Amino acid sequence: MKSEFIMSGTISRARQIAEMAFEKTQSQFLDRTRALREHDAKLSERTDKTRRLRMARLEREQAVKEISSLPSKRGATPA
Question: Backbone phi, then psi, for 19, in 5-degree steps?
């Protein structure tokens, strides 16, 4: 550790450069991780919404199919 400090007690220039490079790399990694998490959350929301909309559409189609299969009251004679 003593070799990292010069006489005035400051960190060597090489150490400063290495730490700045590490901080930059770490910051980029954290930014990428955050962006991926946001992307995954949006993708999950979109998938859930698509599933809900698909289920609603299928239910509507089934209801229409059931209604159309009922016998028609047209042409029936009143009692």
Answer: -65, -40
